[in-house]
Amino acid sequence: MSELTDLVVADRRQEADGVVSLLLRRPDGGALPGWEPGAHIDLLLGNGLERQYSLCGTDASSWRIAVLREPDGRGGSAHVHDALGPGRRVRARGPRNHFRLEAAPAYRFVAGGIGITPILPMLAVADAPWTLSYGGRSLSSMAFTAELAARYPAERLRLQEGPLDLNTLLAGLRPGELVYACGPESLLTAVEALVPAGSLRTERFTPVAAPAGGDESFEVELARSGTVLTVPADRSILSAVRDAGVEVLYSCAEGTCGTCETDVLAGEVDHRDSVLTAQERAGNETLMVCVSRAARGGRLTLDL
Length: 304
Hints:
alpha/beta
């Protein structure tokens, strides 16, 4: 199980309409676990609420997150906005990273709305030419625009109210150039239609739609005990394993956070997560037990 870190809210700021940032530190002022751009933490908010938020600061002694209030959400963002002010205590798990900045000769960063959060620290460490295209419903709803304008040359930034002209912004990619994109599903779908999979890295806040019907039951062997479980067509590996009394760390149960990533020792996976890259899926070394299954009703051996 990943270690929990006790934190205190050291500062809170209104970054945009509907967006607040929290600066989190250890109560004793001690060092926090290290992290790299693209990482997120699980924030344990009480009453069963656990949510993932990207780290978006650059100070090694603190963690900064930014949270958009979601009127139709499940309560996590409302709790952050309404209950977490300076001095309040909270616990976190992580950091964990499935959106790492890889070495490349150039980058194009694309952000929509609160999708700026994992990209913001990437800009500070990118050691190759880059541009950022950042759009939102309105300029007043776009967090960190003043910070961006103060830190980086205007020619690198395109901060735009309304939809981005992706056809123009993503034209003429050079060999090896990488595109990093984060934001609403409509934005990511549009980017995916324009950028070859090998040149694109995305982070999603909502799960990719699962195939409709046609699932089969399959077997999972738990390598540490030798137990073999049958996973019915209408259930997940996660639920079957937990019913067998095996503890597995998980959070979103939608294949978006990466908390339940588990090593695959044998078998072919039908990957259904929104976390792994195409190359990682092809490698068949890990899977997210909350959504992924055995390919063609086969058998998987997992490091559980």
